[in-house]
Amino acid sequence: MSVKDEYVEKLKTQLDEWSADIDVLEERARKLDAELRVKADEQLILLRAKRDEARIKLKEIQDSAGDAWQELRKGGDEAWASIKHALAEARKKFGE
Q1: What is the pLDDT of residue 96?
Q2: Which residue, among 18, 4, 5, has the nearest Cα to 91 in the 3D structure?
Q3: Where are the domains of the chain?
């Protein structure tokens, strides 16, 4: 397996884990009272947007030819750091 393939697999696995985390947070949000639910929904919208951005970066890396993926890796790493931070903040707010 190439370095690119290993990197892509790592990102896919992490993205799947984060999607599962978002699903758990959505379940928790459904159980909150109305005022807290509004704030939770705002956080979930942000998380979904960051997840979608990460998926786009992953697709760009997968579709890149040759060593071009190395250039895209920086953007992918930034997207991953962003969603990782957003999930950590959401977990704090959701009391995890």
Answers
A1: 58
A2: 18
A3: 3-93
